[in-house]
């Protein structure tokens, strides 16, 4: 992994985020307020949890397109286990998270045991898990959760949204694992050269299996937080969230070919995307314009990073 290029990319991205925050603050006096910024943190937590796990997956040269469907399936199962099966809500949520984690494990088995490319495998399970969610829900939503359940998605701890504490904790732990542990170095090694990693005695298959299982777990936890935030469950929850997560990861400097990436970069990329969405919305820009601008920022950030990397290798 080229540490210098990553530092340069993250620094560039952080400076871009500061510029965007300053510019958007002049577009609307509601943007740069404590309430609005904390609310945006509340809204980006689900994507953030998925993006953190996705950073590990993409750093190995893989991808997980099924996370949105796993989120939807877990959300539906939470409601069904509680309302239809009659389980206590904590047990129902735990069982649903276990099911979402198992869905991630199935992805890992398909990819490692049957040698199916991650893009194809998770594209197939994207459809499978979404179909299961729709079949189980029968187009019905579940509402009426007890008040205490909303602590996760709608209430604060020490003045900060509860889910932001969860995201912060997950980001810190993931950063330490990826940057400072043997397992983190294995992730980079697998992404850089999978064949050489095998010859070096690294457990490539076990690493991949663990990563896709963790990706399912992150999506499942995000689902429970999502349900707590919006007070209902629907089978279409999480549709398209995988693209937002992948965009944040790639924008944050993780190479889509593997072998490079950091959690800090992913979080900065996530904040940049959320700032653009919120700031442009407050400024009156329509949704299509926001999507186009985010796409342009992604392309420019990647091009700038590649230029810095090339100049670094020449010197």
From TrEMBL:
Q: How does it sit in the membrane?
A: Multi-pass membrane protein
Which InterPro entries does the annotation name? Answer: ABC_transp_permease
Q: Which CDD domains match?
A: TM_PBP1_transp_AraH_like
TM helices/strands, residue ranges: 49-82, 89-110, 116-133, 164-183, 209-227, 248-277, 289-308
Record carries keyword Cell membrane: yes
Domain of life of the organism encoding this protein: Bacteria
Instruction: Report the subcellular localization.
Output: Cell membrane
UniProt keyword terms in alphabetical order: Cell inner membrane, Cell membrane, Membrane, Transmembrane, Transmembrane helix, Transport
Instruction: Quote the function comment for this protein.
Output: Part of the ABC transporter complex LsrABCD involved in autoinducer 2 (AI-2) import. Probably responsible for the translocation of the substrate across the membrane.
Q: How does it assemble?
A: The complex is composed of two ATP-binding proteins (LsrA), two transmembrane proteins (LsrC and LsrD) and a solute-binding protein (LsrB).
Name it.
Answer: Autoinducer 2 import system permease protein LsrD
């Amino acid at each position: 992994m080229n540490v210098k290029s990553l530092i340069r990319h993250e620094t560039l991205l952080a400076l871009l985020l500061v510029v965007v925050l300053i510019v958007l603050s002049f577009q609307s006096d509601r943007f740069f307020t404590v309430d609005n910024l904390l609310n945006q943190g509340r809204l980006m937590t689900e994507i953030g949890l998925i993006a953190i796990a996705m950073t590990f997956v993409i750093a190995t040269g893989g991808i997980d397109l099924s996370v949105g469907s796993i989120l939807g399936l877990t959300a539906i199962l939470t409601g069904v286990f509680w309302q239809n099966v009659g389980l206590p809500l904590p047990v129902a949520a735990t069982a649903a998270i276990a099911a979402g984690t198992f869905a991630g494990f199935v992805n890992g088995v398909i990819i490692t045991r049957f040698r199916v490319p991650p893009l194809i495998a998770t594209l197939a399970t994207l459809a499978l898990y979404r179909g299961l969610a729709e079949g189980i829900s029968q187009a019905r939503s579940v509402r009426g959760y007890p008040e205490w359940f909303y602590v996760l998605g709608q209430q604060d701890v020490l003045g900060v949204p509860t889910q932001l504490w969860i995201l912060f904790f997950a980001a810190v732990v993931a950063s330490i694992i990826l940057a400072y542990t043997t397992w983190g170095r294995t992730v980079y090694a697998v992404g850089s050269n999978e064949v050489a990693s095998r010859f070096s005695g690294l457990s490539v298959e076990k690493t991949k299996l663990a990563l896709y299982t963790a990706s399912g777990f992150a999506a499942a936890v995000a689902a429970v937080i999502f349900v707590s935030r919006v007070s209902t469950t629907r089978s279409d929850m999480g549709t398209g969230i995988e693209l937002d997560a992948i965009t944040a990861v790639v924008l944050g400097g993780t190479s889509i070919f593997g072998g490079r990436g950091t959690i800090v970069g992913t979080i900065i990329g996530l904040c940049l995307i959320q700032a653009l969405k919120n700031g442009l919305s407050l400024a009156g820009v329509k949704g299509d314009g926001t999507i186009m601008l985010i796409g342009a920022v992604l392309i420019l950030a990647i091009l700038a990073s590649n230029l810095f990397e090339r100049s670094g290798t020449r010197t």
